[in-house]
Each structure stands twice: as structure tokens, then as C-alpha cells.
Amino acid sequence: MTPGTGSSQLLAFIKFLRSKDVPVSPADTLDAVHAAGLLGYEDRTKLRDGLAAVLAKSTFEQSAYLEAFDLFFAPQHPDDKTSEGPEAENSASESTQTDAQNNPSTSTESTPSLDDLLQNPSAQDDPTLAGLMSSDLMNALQDGDESTLAMAIEAAAEAARIDEIRLFTQRGQFTRKLLDALGETALRDAAIELEGNQPKAFQEIQRLRESLRHRARDRVERAYLVHAAGDTEDFLDEALSEVRLANISPHQMARMRKLMDRMARKLASRHGRRRRKKRRGQLNVPMTLRASVATDGIPFNTHWRQIQKKRPQVMAICDVSGSVATYAKFLLMFLYALQDVLPRTRSFAFSSSLGEVTDWFSELSVEEAVSRVNRVYGGATDYARALSDFSDLALQDINKATTVIILGDARNNNSDLRLDLLAEIKAKCKRLIWLNPEPRLAWGTGDSAMLPVTQHCHLATECNNLKQLERIIDTLLSAMHGN
Fold first, then answer.
1. How far apart are CA 71 and CA 85, in angstroms?
2. What percentage of residues in the chain have a pLDDT greater than 90?
3. Cα separation of 96 and 83, whole Å?
């Protein structure tokens, strides 16, 4: 691999890494190019370890990096004897001999060359066949020269621009382009001429064509995995993030969890590195003077009155009745995926009666905790009783550093919602956010009390998919870190 080709492949690899959720900054890219220039591209293991030192910075990134490297820089023909040394050659030779003994049809003695099969003088004089027989591609196919075939396929891949593949359905189209660039048309024309009068030569031509098609399909599939799989995954994730959470089917949960973890890492990287500026406060003169007695009244050590800032906390109140239970499940899962950057989180669940479930999430996995929440607190909705229970349990713990998030549809079967309790919570907390999974057009219809609820919230918004939830949590974290 030449340095120029290696550099372009390295940049393509970095793009591939980003599609695998490995963040690579412009500075990291420059470091990777410099490291690859020092290490060279000949030794695959040395290149892999060297690039890992500058591109993989965590356990997750290390794992994703190794998987991506093995996929992107996979040997094009693992059976290439020249790349493995004498031991591989001996092993391949023994394997060939064994195959020949077990299956005579694979023996070199039972498979004459195409030259031997072209016994018809008129066929040998045919210009199409003569040109084909003298081509480097035909010689490489007949001799099994993997190095020559690999170089020919790479040159044809560049000519066919297979790196532009973006869709799974384009594989056949790019395979055909690659075969045309390789000159497979000459093999096809030769097969047509030999089919009628030279059956054995025709079969050999077909065997060589199939071998070439197999290599072409393999190269296109690798190009798809490298250049299109990431785009396809991004497209699927983007579509899933906009699907209503109530419509997520069980077989999509694995992808949904992966997407939530990806969003959580993104929010963590965005908000986890911020640092508060510590204000020194006012000078504490009496304490400073007392401390300066030991230094003849010279205040070497000053003391300051500092305002004790209360630690921010989040209280999440989730309606887990049948209509909104799925949304509560995803909200709780998302909040607890963000524990590295979210402040203290206390969770409460209700349908009629309300209880705190914070300890369940510390003792159990998120899935088990959510399942237990639904079993214990599922049922008919009673917001009045739930808000009353919350006031008894946690109202005294709310202060101006507390953000209260309520998830529910505000449908209370035409009963009193106890808006007075909601107003009291708003007065004591810093921020009261109500998330409603219903569309805004449905607010206030039927038994919905959402319109009067909005008057007692700092923010009331529609939230029924993962993208909306991410945006809301992002805004919440920005407000917390901005203070």
C-alpha cells in the first residue's frame, strides 16, 4: 500500500469509526495520520495498536475500535499463501493434497487447463479467445495468483467507484460495475462461443467466471459494510427515535436500548466536562484578622464567606397506568442511563397511590426495576391521590435546586386533579416540567385537564418519542450546568 493510498484509507477508516459511535476530533485525526506515517502501513498489527493509542480513549471505544479495524482492514483474501509465510504454504499444500485424495474432482490432474481443452484449431484462432487467453486476468484466474487478482480487483473497484455504495439494494448494481471494470464481459463472450462446440472448455470458462463473480461480490459486500452500513444504521436509528414509544415492538427493544445508550453517551460528553466557576464570596474580616495574629497582623491567609449552594436534584413522578406506562418506562430508563451527569435522581410511580421507587433502581437492573414498578403501581389513574401522597413523602425535601418532572396525560376521569398541590410544588421547586405523551391537539379534550395544568408548570410539552425526550433532557442539563 502506497503512502497516498494509505492516507486516504485512513481518513475513510476514521469516518467509519465515527459511524460506530467512536468520537474522533480533528486533532485526533491529525495525530492518527502522523502515527500512521511513522508506523507505516505494511505491518497490520503495529498499525492497529498504534492507531488505538490515539483513537480509542475508553473501554467502549477500545472495543468498538478493534471491531471496526478488523472489519475495515480485513484481509481481502485470507487464503493468500504469500501473505502468511512458509508455514501457511506448507499447510495449504497439505490441505490441497488431502482434498485431492478425498475428492478426485478437485485434483489438478483431473482439471486440465483451458489451453488443453481448446483442442479445436478454429477456436484457438478466434481473436476473442486469443485475446482472452493472453490477458493477465485469465492467467491469474487459471494460476490462482491471488496477489495479481487482488490488485486487479482493487484497481477495478476504484474505477467502478464502489466506495459510493450507500444502500443494501445497490450491491448487485455495483457488483456488475466491478465485473465490467475487471473485463468479465470477455469471459462471458467466450462462454457463449464455446457453449455449443466445446462443452468442456465452456464448463471451465464458467468455473472461472463464477470464481471471479464470487470475488467481486465479496469486495462489494465489504465496501457496503465499510461505507454504507454506518449510514444505514444511522437511518434506522433516526427513524426509530421518531417512532412513538408506545409503538416500539419487543423485537426492537435491543436496538432501542443501544440507541438510548448512544444518546446518553452523547449527552454525557456534552455536559459532563463542564466546570463551575467557584465564586470566592465576601471577605470574612474577623476570621482573617484572627488568623493574622500569628504573622504579626499580616494577613497571609485570607478567609471568605462562601454561599453554601444546594446540590441540584431531580424528582421524576411517573404515571404508570395502562395508557402511559410505556412512556414512563422509557423515561425512567433514560434518566438512569444518565446517572454520570444527572444530579441526584429520586423516582416516584403512581396510578392511584404513589410511592418512591428510587431504591429499586439502585438494587435491580433498570429492566427489572421498571417491571416491578408496573406490577406494584399499575392500575386506574387518580392524580389527586398521587399528588397528595407526593406532598406527604417529598414536598419538604423540595427546594430551589430541585427540578420536578411529571410524566402523565392529565386524564383523571373528570375528577378533581388537586391543582392547588401542583401550584405548591411549583412554588417550592426551581423547575416544574410536565411531559405529556398525547399530541397537543388532544389536550383539553374529553377528561383531559392538561390546559389548566399548563398554568402551574414552568414547562409543559408533548413528549412521545425518544428524540423529543433527548431534546428535553438536553435542555434540562444545559439549564443546570449553566447556573
1. 23
2. 17
3. 18
Closest CA to 375 of 337, 333, 322: 322
Q: Between 86 and 114, whose confidence is greater? A: 114
Q: Coil, helix or strand for 77?
A: coil
Q: Can you read off the three cell numbers belonging to residue 96? A: 490441497
Distance CA 190, CA 249 (A): 53
Mean pLDDT in residue range 101-111: 44
Cβ(435)–Cβ(463) below 8 Å:
yes
| CB atoms inside a 10 Å sphere around CB 384 | 16
pLDDT tens, residue by residue, 20-68: 778 888 888 898 888 888 888 778 888 889 899 989 888 888 888 888 8
Q: Report yes or no: 254 and 473 within 8 Å, Cβ to Cβ.
A: no
Task: Spell out the alpha helix ranges (H) of 103-183.
Answer: 114-117, 121-125, 127-133, 136-143, 146-160, 171-182
According to DSSP, residue 276 is labeled: P
Q: Which residues of 144-162 are buried (b: 16+ CB within 10 A; e: fewer)?
A: ebbeebbebbeebbeebeb
Backbone angles phi, psi at 348, to 5 degrees: -130, 145
Count of CB atoms within 10 A of residue 383's CB? 28
C-alpha to C-alpha distance for 206 and 114, rounded to whole angstroms = 11
Q: What are phi and psi of 411, to 5 degrees?
A: -100, 115
Give me Rg for the CA atoms of the chain: 34
DSSP string, 400-461: TTEEEEEE---B-TTS---HHHHHHHHHHSSEEEEEE-S-GGGTTSTTB-HHHHHTT-SEEE
Residues comprising the chain, all counted: 483
Contacts of 270 (CB under 8 A, 6+ apart): 474, 477
Q: Mean pLDDT over all residues of the chain?
A: 79
Sheet holding 313-319, edge to edge: 354-356, 344-350, 313-319, 402-407, 431-436, 459-462
User: Can you read off the three cell numbers belonging to residue 186?
Assistant: 470477455
Total Cβ atoms within 10 A of residue 427: 10
CA dihedral over 58, 59, 60, 66, signed as positive or negative? positive
As given in the structure block, the three cell numbers for residue 256 are 432501542
Angle between helices 229-241 and 466-481 (to 10 degrees): 80
What element of type H or E holds 462?
strand 459-462
Q: If residue 185 lies in a helix (H) or strand (E), which one and from where to where?
A: helix 184-197
pLDDT exceeds cutoff 60 at 232 = yes
Round to whole Å and give the CA distance between 384 and 381: 9
Residues with Cβ within 8 Å of 389's Cβ and at least 6 positions away in sequence, in order, are 350, 353, 354, 355
CB-CB contact of 149 with 141 (8 Å):
yes
Q: Which spans in 228-308 are helix H?
A: 229-241, 253-271, 285-291
Which residues are 236's β-sheet partners?
none
Q: How many CA atoms lie within 13 A of 405 on its CB side?
A: 24
